[in-house]
Amino acid sequence: MVACPARPGALASARARVPQQLVLISDRLTPRSVIYFLCLLCALMWASPSNAQEQPDAGPTSGAEAPAVKAVVPPKLLHAEPPVYPAEAERNGLEGEVLMRLTIDKEGHVTEVDVVEPAGNGFDPAAADAAKKFLFSPATRDGEPVSVKILYRLSFPRKTAAQTPVAAPSLGELAGALRIAGTDAPLAGARVEVVGPDGSHHNTQSDAEGRWRLQALPPGSHQVNIQAEGFESLHMAEVVRGGEAAEVTYRMRVKSERSEGLVVTVVGERPPREVTRRTLERREIERIPGTNGDALRSVLSLPGVARPPALLGLFIVRGSAPQDSATFIDGEQVPIIYHFGGISSVVPTELLERIDFYPGSFSAKYGRQMGGIIDVGLRAPDTDCKVFGNPNGEQGCYHAMAQFDLIDMRAMAQGPIGPLKNWSFAVAGRRSWVDTWLKPVLKGLGAGVTTAPVYYDGQLILSHKPTRDSELRLQSYVSDDRLEILINDPFAQDPGFGGNLTFRTGFYRVQAIYQVKLSREVELRTMSSAGRSHLEFSLGNFLFDLKYYPVSLRSEFGWKVARQVTLNAGYDFQIAPFELNVRAPPPPRPGEPSAGPFSTRPLLQQHNSATAFRPGWYTELELTPTRRARIVPAARVDYARDSGRADFSPRLNARYNLIDSNDAAPGQSRLRTTVKAGVGLFQQPPQFLETDTVFGTPGLRSNRAIHYSLGGEQEFSQNVELSVEGFYKDLTRLVVRNPTLGGYVYTNQGSGYSMGLETMLKYKPDEHFFGWLSYTLSRSVRRNGPDDPEYLFQFDQTHNFTILGSYKLGRGWEFGARFRVISGSLDTLVLGPPALPSLYDADAGAYTPLEGRPSSHRLPLFHQLDLRTDKGWQFKNWRFSLYLDIQNAYNNQAVEALVYNYNFSQQSYQRGLPLIPSIGMRGEF
Amino acid sequence: MKPGWVFWGCLVLCTSCDAGFDRVSEVKTLRVLAVQKDKPYTYPGDTVSLSMLFHDGAAAFGDGGPRALVPFWYAGCVNPPGDLFYGCFDQLASQNPQNVSVGVGNRFSLQLPSDIISSRPPPRNPRQPPYGLAYVFFAVCAGNLSVERSENPLDIPLRCRDASGKVLGSDDFVAGYSAVYAFDQLENRNPAVTGFEVSGQQVTPDCIGDACVDTITPEPDCSNPLLCLPCASSGSCLKISVRPTIDRASIEPDPVASLESGTLLEEQMWVAYFVDRGSVSSEVRLLNDATRGYSDKFGVDFQPPSEVGPARVWAVVHDNRGGVNWARLTFSVR
Questions:
Q1: Range ranked top by mean pLDDT from A101-110, A590-599, A739-748
Q2: Which of B8, B81, B282 minimises the CB distance to A741?
Q3: Per residue in A759-796, pLDDT tens?
């Protein structure tokens, strides 16, 4: 609820006359003009083509617009003899992987084999011998067969000791597990084709855990072909013996970014250890209308994520407060995720390898939060060599990209590091440059502009793979947003909001990540990081200035104790020396009546330097008692020195495949049906100011939530899947405060709950289409004390419906649309007659609203249509793409808040952004 | 507290302006324009005098002529829980209040308890000076004022009814409060307003400070051409720059805000403008920023009305420690 002095229709008309306002604005900087420019800036940034992405559809045959490029069709493996497993390696249980460069003649025969990455232990000659017997379809250029060289990786998967007999002794069984190389995460939805020695084809698909199984295979040599969107295809030769079941594990490599379909993985509603999995491929992220291709903004279209108020880039997950959720970059918590509250992500999409989104019931590796988790993974540098944009299998090439638009400019380079074997780098940077043209404009209008709004971010990644089973990653990232403006017209509703406005959020981190497979059963992943964060906001004599220097240490050991038992254990330490300087009245809290204007309320001050220390330890068991069942009990212990409290948080998640796609008979396919459930305790220490000796009350306990979830997944086809999940969060020990003589006292007397139902019907991307329909029904309630009445939480959204889709029309064209219908936000009404709506605060010269029940008024329904059209051109050595992204296509300016006149006797709606068309373009080579 | 929230919340708050409402600077109803304490910061046991500047803008638009308006004062609420004004409502509605003083008229005095500071816990930051707080409530009603308690604890227990018993709303009834802070040692003075400038030239205002409380001066006789505007004859009036003149020596440092700062911060000060006819280009202007200091651009452009008659401009100067002062200027539109 806000109040304002108003000029009839000014803002409404201003929205419709954006360009004219630039010259018609008055000769002084008023709050309205400042805010107007900031909003204009936000609108421009929001609508910026800064995230224009490449057109992945623009292949060599993308249409008549392409120049006369001779298209190359790579060779395809037609026949392969299984390699002879080195006897000693087999006895010792070793496995290997050999990378070879094969020369293939015009007939498809392998004429030369060079081992590029040897594996030793006898694997290299065995691989070379096998490769010489391969037969390919010849590569062609413009339809003519040509001789080519390709890189080929041949794996010698460890033969599992469990060579169990199967029912029909004359037939065999082949089962496998697919993992994403580098992450070891399971790869779901991959198409597995096995061609038997008799030419018979057997098909299946990997399940949510990356597993697949084919039964009743004839004995002999089989060709295994695995394809997954966004991953390099894998072709293997395996031997199936009658009466035995063989198990293999393959690691799929992500395609290069510059090739079509790099996958950025978004895991939704994911209980610990990949029990449930949803993926958004990069094509989806880039093409979701209304997001400008920004990966993190695309998460807002998933079930369970509420629409945040305009310009407040908040993550509101399953009815939790924004501060209950946290954002990580490769395991390190960062203070912000968006520049200027939602304009663009602090990490560009180009550098993302994955986004893990956990709306609840997350793994015990995460603690100290009771809402949701977003963990962003930066990608390994791309050193693939490309022919007309497609990888040719060779490594060691450099790439660069530059982009420029109205709001920011960015550049990225990546490739190998000169003579250092197995080292590669990626470096990227982005800076908004709107300040360079906005500052003189504002100054020309008489504003005191010290720093016009500006942001930048940068990333540096160094990757080293000393062995096939280990990787060392050194990376650093920095982000900075700042502005400083002198507001000469304080806000009439609260004149303390005037004068010198400074806003800055910045952070950097230096991070080292090392992961290694210590043995066949034990894996280690460790992360260390150090850096600095600076959050500063000042206005007049109010100040919040926090500098801290976080050091994070994380390690996790994974030990496969037995075939059906894997133990994961780790620690998660946060150490942060900090310096805090606060000068402000006690900040308002949700659900509290207005205490009057800030301007003249007595200041509290805190200047504190200390070291926060929050260690955590956790352990999880991954139990698979049967092939269909997966049970993950876990426990975590956290300690917070600032509150002096230790928390123990047990958790349990389980899923069971009622129908398993791997149970399909030969030649048939079965559609998976899964039920899943989870329950767990999640505890979140009080915020630092809540236990501060000046602002808060020391000795508070942690906020507590018990997450319950129950759901199911049903496949309807290889592309269509429905998931339904109900959740309930029981919130207790919430920190609330009560007025007392001389100030406030904070207690853990708050409580509440969030409950809801999330539904998602998804069509997974195929070569033409992707889309989904999601609906979330939820309710979030709070109570400040056992004797206080319940009230709806301010971010409660009853209904959230999204339908979106994108279709490739061909010839480089793609069209998409997104339509959303969402319950209006909640607001608090002032008292109505016969009561006065406000009191005059004589010290501030402003009015204080007298409020009714908190969050008692639901604003009108939000609905919006976004459209997007892409067009790409492929040239010989570079690509060019254009897009038009129209937000709010039918110009329904949503109601964002209630606004009042100066004394709250008149009421109106504040409306949001109008139709915003956005044109983006990008070229790269 | 998340600074980003505050920032963007501030943005949302500010973008909420201009929804077609009347401007706060244009006095078209009954309005309290300011309440001044003779000592914005006082000592325990001291007596504080308050005076109210109000104007009934409705009188100029109605057909009944000036209304009889008598301010009502109420004091006695000391150190309410959380220092929250609504913590006083129970006492205000009480049938048998103790240690309460009430009054009527444009001025009011109260004596603070001598234990107003010692009766509350000391500040948690030992470097912050302890203080005591007393609330003074006031109301101006264009009818009959009564004490009525409603079920809502946030509803001030005062009602203003006309002769027929109908409850009057914000246009005819203004209630408010002033917070009186007592310190053992700190002092604060009201801003010193010395006059008015019109188009960059000094003019003598109708009145300054307490002198404006009781009287409305008649239309000037055009002895000063700066105040006599031949708008009606020319068909329109040009905008005129106006601002009060301030004694900069009255801009004081703020020792409380400077405690942990490392640099000396000053009072945050601003000027609120009001007109009974015509309009001003800004409603509130910054006079002094706590960190950047004095701003010379605190004037506004006054757009006189096109109709003949007097047009008054009030400039009310505030500091953020409860200090306030004002001056009034009357133009004659001919």
A1: A739-748
A2: B81
A3: 999 998 887 888 999 999 999 999 999 998 999 999 99
- Between chains, do B320 and A600 touch, taking CB under 8 Å as contact? yes
| A151-174: b (≥16 Cβ within 10 Å) or e | bbbbbbbbbbeeeeebeeeebbbb
Give this prediction's pTM: 0.77
Tracing tokens 């640099």 back to the chain, one arrives at B263
Query: Is a pLDDT exceeding 70 seen at residue A188?
Result: yes
| Residue in chain A lying closest to B317 (CA) | A845
Comparing alpha-carbon positions, the chain B residue that sits nearest to A6 is B18
Measured between CA atoms, how close is B131 to chain A, in angstroms?
A: 9
Q: At what angle do helices B3-15 and A31-46 cross, to 10 degrees?
A: 110
Q: Looking at the predicted structure, is the pLDDT value of residue A843 above 90?
A: yes
For residue A669, the model assigns a pLDDT of: 63
CA dihedral angle for residue B254, residue B124, residue A736, residue B82, rounded to 10 degrees = -60
Sign of CA dihedral A534, A535, A538, A542: negative
Report how far residue A779's alpha carbon sits from residue A769's, in angstroms, rounded to the nearest whole number. Answer: 33
> B284 touching A, CB under 8 A?
yes
- Chain B residue numbers touching A582 (CB-CB < 8 A): 1
pLDDT in tens, A538-563: 888 889 999 999 999 999 999 989 88
Is the minimum CB–CB distance between B167 and chain A shorter than 8 Å? yes
Q: What is the mean pLDDT of residues A732-746?
A: 91
Residues in chain A with CB shorter than 8 Å from the CB of B85 are 595-596, 839, 848
Q: How far apart are CA B42 and CA B183, in angstroms?
A: 6
B163 touches chain A (CB under 8 A): no
The nearest CA of chain B is from the CA of A251 a distance in Å of 42
Asked, as a colleague might, if the bond just before A834 is cis with ω within 30 of 0, I would say yes
From the list A583, A850, A910, the residue facing B155 with the nearest CB is: A850
Judged by CB atoms closer than 8 Å, whether chains meet at A897 and B124 is answered as no
Distance CA B322, CA B179 (A): 8
- Among A5, A311, A844, the residue with its CB nearest the CB of B23 is A5
Task: Count CA atoms within 13 Å of residue A369 on its CB side.
Answer: 25
Chain A within 8 Å of B263 (Cβ-Cβ)?
no
Give residues with Cβ within 8 angstroms of A454, minimum separation 6: A431, A432, A433, A434, A435, A481, A482, A483
Q: Give B 191-230 residues with CB within 8 A of chain A.
A: none
> Which positions ≥6 away from B73 have C-beta within 8 Å?
B50, B102, B103, B104, B105, B108, B136, B137, B138
Query: What is the nearest CA distance from B181 to chain A, expressed in angstroms?
Result: 9
Q: Six-digit token pair at A309?
A: 């108020």
Identify residue A698 by its one-letter amino acid code.
P
ipTM: 0.94
What would the pLDDT profile of A127-174 be if each residue is shown by its tens digit? 888 888 888 878 776 667 777 777 777 777 665 443 333 333 467 788
- C-alpha span between B198 and B175 (Å, rounded): 33
Q: Do A836 and B170 lie within an 8 Å CB cutoff? A: yes
Contact assignment for A14 to B18 by CB distance below 8 Å:
yes
Q: Which residue of A has its CA nearest to B279?
A: A7
The count of other CB atoms within 10 Å of the CB of residue A201 is: 12
Confidence (pLDDT) at A447: 56
Q: Which residue has the tokens 């982005």?
A: A430
Counted residue by residue, chain B has a size of 334
Nearest to B170 among A31, A492, A903 (CB): A903
User: Where is pLDDT greater, at A917 or A518?
Assistant: A518
Q: Contact at 8 Å (CB) between A315 and A328?
A: no
pLDDT in tens, A430-456: 888 777 777 777 666 555 666 677 889
